Amino acid sequence: MSLRSTRPGRAKLRVAAAASALGLVATMAACGSTGEDEPAQTGSIDCAPYTKFGDLKGKSVSFYTGIVQPEDAAYIASFKPFEECTGVTIKYEGDKSFETQILVRARAGNAPDIGIVPQPGLLQQLVATGAVKEAPAEVVANVDKFWSKDWKAYGTVNGKFYSAPMSANVKSLVWYSPQEFKQNNYKIPTTLDELYALSNTIAGKNKKPWCAGISSGEATGWPVTDWVEDMLLRLSGPEEYDKWVKHDIPFNSAGPRAAFDEAGKYLKEPKFVNGGYGDVKSIASTTFQDAGQAILAGNCSMYRMASFYAANWPAGTNVSEDGQVFAFFLPGKSAGDKPVLGGGEFVTAFADRPEVKAFQTYMSSDTWANVKSKLGGTVVSANKGLKIEDCKCSPVDKLSLQLLQDPKTVFRFDGSDLMPGAVGANSFWKQATSWITGQSTQATVDNIEASWPK
Questions:
Q1: pLDDT tens across 201-254, in order?
Q2: Residue 380: band (very low, low, confident or very high) from pLDDT cuts 50, 70, 90
Q3: Is the CATH code 3.40.630.30 the one for domain 18-170+343-412?
Q4: 15, 47, 13, 14: which is closest to 28 by C-alpha?
Q5: Mean pLDDT, to the nearest integer, of 282-309?
Q6: DSSP assignment of 334-390, as one string?
């Protein structure tokens, strides 16, 4: 499935500025202890796991990704401990066209040593070229130890494990104004029923509870697909969600129809939307970047959008539990449910030289996760070895990490990213946009079902 740079969240994670990140890394120890008088801000690392790969001094590993300046700084900095341990040089190449170029390069026999693949569907396409190498035993051991079976499955194609997860984003969030909630004694909803009741309460005060925007250039419509996926996961459960994504059940079956209708209770209700922008149809012409800003203006109270939206608030905005804006978990049917929709990126190897395997081992470890987390910026990972208490994270990232590490969490990858391109990046987006502007649920799901490749 073709990826799209207009849809953020996979290769758009926000990290610290270059000077800050590199400054921190300068304080890191190479290997072993740092000495009592010289504490390392990001901690030293144990070089032992990499000795088994032999003498690697003078070797290099090419690293290709869609993560570009300034977001690349903390990633480059996080490689330094490995480079100092092994003598390997990591040659970083960021490219906004990664999602199309990686396929071109793989098919032409010009693939990098490592590519950061931002979607399981793309991984499947790459594996089909024959260029991708299976993960070495050391990576398999790390993933089995530090990641859930769900995450390992996303790096597996036709029963073979290829790619370890790297980073993640959480989409099941609702942005809101803590100050407004405190002033009105609104409680954070813990069930879908409570969320709907809160929406009615706010609407009863002659205010639109929700703002929404789905305009995103050629990718217009994707925010609606996230709403639908979240609702399907909540109403029908993870097993039914998996069947839907794989087309083991029709797109126009009862579960998906109910998910559209549940999303429509919010998005297509005139008294609920679109705070600050217009009526229901204005959702289609409002960009997803602009939509949430109506919370700061006091024109709406809530905006369902992923963790990566934190980067869209104006500089100086207090984003915290007691600040101008923050986020809460989009609740499930019951207070104990923790269905989390999200995305992520995967470390994929196109070479199996010792230095490449050693680097894969580092990237799949809790060591790398904790080194990266101490470099600041956006730091979200489902690696269970990441120590949240030591993370130099934003409050929203900490919320996301807590959700990902919660043993009750049931994580599922963005459904449209897993579907064939003709559906996930085409008919689903387009028909969801038509749905917003007035098309019926039945016509919408029927049209998407008809587009599924035979």
A1: 999 999 999 999 999 998 999 999 999 999 999 999 999 999 999 999 999 999
A2: confident
A3: no
A4: 47
A5: 97
A6: STT--EEEEEEEEEEES---HHHHHHHHHHTSHHHHHHHHTT-B------TT--GGG
Query: Per-residue b/e over 272-305, b at no fewer than 16 CB within 10 Å?
Result: bbbbbbeebebbbebebeebbbbbeeeebbbbbb
Helices 254-267, 222-236: inter-axial angle, 10-degree rounding:
120
Tell the CATH topology of 173-329+420-451: D-Maltodextrin-Binding Protein; domain 2 (3.40.190)
- In angstroms, the CA 105 to CA 98 distance is 10
Q: Is the pLDDT of residue 17 over 70?
A: no
**Using alpha carbons only, what angle is made at residue 196 by residues 190 and 201, rounded to the nearest 5 degrees?**
105
Q: Token digits for 119? A: 């979607």
Please state whether the peptide bond connecting residue 274 to the residue before it is cis, i.e. omega within 30 degrees of 0. yes
The distance in angstroms from the start CA to the end CA of the chain is: 16
Q: Tokens for 86?
A: 């092994």
Is the separation of the CB atoms in 29 and 44 below 8 Å?
A: yes
pLDDT for residue 18: 31
Could you tell me if 323 and 181 are in contact, meaning their C-beta atoms sit under 8 angstroms apart? no
Q: Which residues are bridge partners to 91 per DSSP? A: 62
Domain boundaries, given as residue ranges, for the chain: 18-170+343-412, 173-329+420-451
Report yes or no: 25 and 375 within 8 Å, Cβ to Cβ.
yes
Classify the C-alpha dihedral 140-144-147-152 as positive or negative. positive
Global confidence as pTM? 0.84
Task: Quote the CA–CA distance of 133 and 113 in Å, as a whole number.
Answer: 10
DSSP state of 311: G
Indicate the burial class of 185 (C-beta count within 10 angstroms; 0-12, 13-18, 19 or more). Answer: exposed
pLDDT of res. 327: 98
Amino acid identity at 321: E
Classify 191 in phi/psi space as left (phi over 0), alpha (psi -120 to 50) or beta.
beta
List all residues 6 or more positions away from 57 whose beta carbon is below 8 Å from its beta carbon.
86, 87, 88
Query: Using one digit for the tens of pLDDT, what is the confidence trace for 384-440?
Result: 999 998 888 889 999 999 999 898 999 999 999 899 989 998 999 999 999 999 999
Two domains, one topology: 18-170+343-412 and 173-329+420-451:
yes
CA–CA gap between residue 402 and residue 407 (Å, rounded): 10
Which structure tokens are listed for 313? 């608030």
Count CA atoms within 13 Å of residue 385 on its CB side: 17
What's the angle, vertex CA 5, arms to CA 105 and CA 356, rounded to 5? 40
Q: Is residue 20 within 8 Å of residue 52, measured between CB atoms?
A: no
Instruction: Compute the mean pLDDT over every residue in the chain, rounded to the nearest whole number.
Output: 89
**Could you tell me how many residues make up the chain?**
454
